[in-house]
Amino acid sequence: MPVDLPPDEVDAFRRGDAPAPMLDLIGLMACHAVGAARSLGVFDALAAGPSTTDELAAAVGADPTGLDQLLGVLRTTGYVRRHEGRHANTPATAAWLCSGSPTDYGRILGLWQAIVEERWAGLAGAVRSGTPAGGFYDWLAGRPDLSAAFHDLQRGLAEWLADEVVSLVPLPEGAKSLLDLGGGHGAYAAAFCRAHPGLSGTIVDGAVTDGSDGRLTWRAGDLLTADLPGEQDVTVLFNVLHGFAARDAAALVARAAGTLRAGGLLVVLESMPEPSGTAADLAFAAGFSLNLWHTQGGALHPAETIRGWLEAAGCAPGAWTELTRSPSHALVIATT
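-> structure tokens emitted (336 positions)
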């Protein structure tokens, strides 16, 4: 969490009178401190009420002296507060870092900490040579705890956005078939089927096994090489294109367009490289795009680039629509 700097200190860092990288160093320390606190159960223990250091140490099974040092970092970086010798969670910690929080951001933080610390090694050499390290999914497969966190994150994001996405996509009258390319969790296809009782969904993804559940069918397959069903009423590419380099992403758009019947819809949902949200959204998007390039060979592709791929595939794209629930995501509907 950024340190709560008074205006004069902010101005000093911006002018270069103070070392701005010091704030990044503090952030690095805070990230590790939060990870340690979550491992110890500090935030959950404080959710039960304010505690002294000794009380908290007894509750989480920690050494009071070491815990007091850890609490010092958490306090000065805004994760806990102290009043009359008792520690308590700040509102932000209660909202985002306790296991009972609606969104447990701690798992997300832990995942990204591991990605940056382990997968960004060699970043300078990759930038120098133009050859990304790659291997993200192989690395993830060897880390079951992180793999579970990653897939939970993907599903959670989809479930958070699905209702709004469905409301923005007017299906062709009488639509019966939807093809979801890369949506292995099935959350989007399920949401469309709930909203349209006559619809059935087929999900093709390299990370699933063949199977079915009600009106949903899963098929394992590489999106760039697998045989894909045709004559679909709707085909969706949701948060998929950014995992591919531009050439392969364009090829995937063309393959998706080829699955549609005349008058069918191709719907693309993507994170934008320059979102119109907050400064934090913009900074995260830049880091996310760098991570995609270095660990997967992908990138956050510009909206106009994706529009060009749709047109080259014989589709007529409409205007991009930003999601209200996540302004960093935008959706475009193209007709064949």
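The radius of gyration is 23 Å.
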